[in-house]
Design goal:
Length: 218
């Protein structure tokens, strides 16, 4: 594996509110076909701003030599994303409806999300809960993305390692995440970085990494 030493002059630091515009652009570039990308930069900015104001959130950015944000990682409680959407529910539906009318891709995505939601509800009883839900203090990794032009150079590894270190420093024992099954590159990336699969649903894999052992020794 290439290591992050190969990317000169890139460093990782905590995200600030002044970074929000650049963060939203980076997020959109990393997840171009996601629901949030269709909702627009304003929306992504709002979400990150909300996450950054949550007490246990960890948001980091990778900065290149021209002060551009080339990578982001954010984690906290998964329910914070839903809480943000709920807090903006009125605006949210206006935007979804408006964009669905003018944008065919958005229409497709809304229908897909509705179908998924219905399917998820009807099959929920077959899913397991995370094995460590009550025994461990666990943080969710919500987003990680590296600008397409800087991918596969070790930057993702640098970001996730820093995130893991911050999570240990904040007192968490493990990190978990969901990844779409068809995101083969991301799954390979996580496995390479020491994560393991704990559950598989129809569309996603849930992965976890125990971090206390790795870092507390250092
Ligand atoms: C997943 C992601 C963050 C990885 O970042 P990255 O900087 O490219 O990762 P690294 O360079 O540190 O890669 C480390 C290892 O992961 C694996 N990997 C990373 N990208 C890969 C790809 N496109 N295809 C196959 N394996 C890949 C490789 O094993 C790689 O080691 P190698 O270069 O020696 O083969 C990046 O691809 C990305 O931003 N993807 C789009 C957003 C996304 O899907 N995020 C995850 C959502 S759950």
């Amino acid at each position: 594996m290439q290591t992050f030493q190969n990317i000169t002059a890139i460093y990782v630091r905590e995200a600030r509110h002044t970074d929000l515009y650049k963060i939203s652009k980076c997020h959109k570039a990393c997840f171009p076909n996601s629901f949030l990308a269709y909702m627009g930069l304003f929306w992504i900015r709002g979400l990150y701003s909300f996450l950054m104001s949550c007490s246990q959130d960890i948001s980091l950015v990778a900065i290149d030599h021209s002060s551009n944000i080339v990578g982001i990682v954010s984690g906290g409680e998964k329910k914070h994303v839903n809480r943000f959407l709920k807090s903006t529910i009125k605006k949210y539906w206006y935007v979804v409806l408006f964009k669905s009318v003018i944008c065919r891709n958005m229409r497709k995505m809304v229908i897909k999300r509705l179908i998924l939601r219905i399917r998820k509800r009807s099959t929920r009883k077959h899913y397991h809960v995370y094995p460590n839900d009550c025994s461990c203090s666990c943080i969710d990794l919500l987003f990680i993305g590296v600008y397409p032009a800087t991918q596969k150079k070790g930057l993702g590894t640098l970001l996730i390692r820093k995130f893991e270190k911050c999570a240990v420093d904040s007192g968490f024992d493990s990190i978990r995440l969901s990844v779409k099954k068809d995101n083969i590159a991301a799954i390979k990336f996580y496995l390479e970085n020491g994560w393991h699969e704990v559950e598989e649903t129809e569309l996603t894999k849930r992965l976890e990494k125990k971090i206390c052992i790795d870092f507390r020794k250092e």
